[in-house]
Amino acid sequence: MKKILIPTDFSAQAYNAIKAGAALAKQSNAEVILLHILDLPSQNSDSISKGTPTAEVMFFKTAAEEKLISLAHDPVLQGLNVFTSLILDKTSLGVTKSAENNEVDLIVMGAHGVSGAKEFFVGSNTEKVVRTSSIPVFVVKGEVTDLKLNHIIFASDFSDNMKGAFDRAVKFNNFVGAKLHLLMVNTPNSFKPTHVAEEILQNFLGNNTSDDFELNVYNDLTIEKGILNFSKRIDADLIAIATHGRKGLSHFFNGSISEDLANHSSRSVLTFKLD
Asked: Within the chain, how many helices (H) and strands (E) appear?
């Protein structure tokens, strides 16, 4: 990884993302971009577009710039190349556009645990970033003291269109040095006998030796419950999943499984856009 984007609203959850992003950046000697977005009411945005920002807008802009500069010198970021960016935009759009414009390799953002994303990534914002980003999104949950990723789950239906996301998950897993658990969830609506599910997994891996991965078939009422319950069983540190990005979710994640996990899981979630 060469560049990591970390959006912040200066909350505790955003600071957890900064700590996680800093740890990843130090492992790869990556640059860090701290992003703050001023999501202004339409009347204030209009005043800026006309070149006559109000005193109120200038106050918030100046205060945010000072906070960003101070945050860039935080001890947790010591030793890293840190850049700051302040933009005026809608939150989710601002994150995805900044990530693309700066050609970053990873977006790291903070959120609450099982209570869902509040403060910076309120509800639909985190879902929109996960759904629309063409760049991997690491949603950090809970307090980060020492980012140790020992067990990562890659949950999938292991169809052919998942191979690109799988390759990126393997690359990330190798980067952090974790154990990768491949997970297929069986539900009553799409039940497969164990031997059939295992055959699908083996065919998907092809020349990749299964010795490098732990293959798992887990039965549950829904895919989301299966992923959450299995992650609890093995005490996973991270759940990796795939989305179709702007084209919607794959048939495996029919509905909004990836987005729901990003909001509902008490564990961190890493999403990859399908090719």
From this structure: 9, 10
Edge-to-edge order in the sheet of strand 151-155 = 82-88, 31-38, 3-7, 106-111, 137-141, 268-273, 238-243, 151-155, 179-186, 213-219
pTM of the model: 0.86
Q: Taking the C-alpha atoms of 44, 48, 49 and 52 in order, what is their torsion angle to the nearest 10 degrees?
A: 110
Alpha-carbon torsion, ordered 48, 132, 109, 118, to 10 deg: 80
Q: From CA 18, how far away is CA 10, in angstroms rounded?
A: 10
**Residues facing 218 on adjacent strands:** 185
Q: Residue 47 to residues 13, 92, 96: CA-CA distances in angstroms?
A: 31, 22, 24
Question: 3-state secondary structure string, 177-240?
Answer: CCEEEEEEEECHHHCCCHHHHHHHHHHHHCCCCHHHEEEEEEECCCHHHHHHHHHHHHCCCEEE
Phi/psi-derived region of residue 185, left when phi > 0, alpha when psi is between -120 and 50, beta in every other case = beta
For the stretch 192-203, pLDDT in tens is: 998 999 899 989
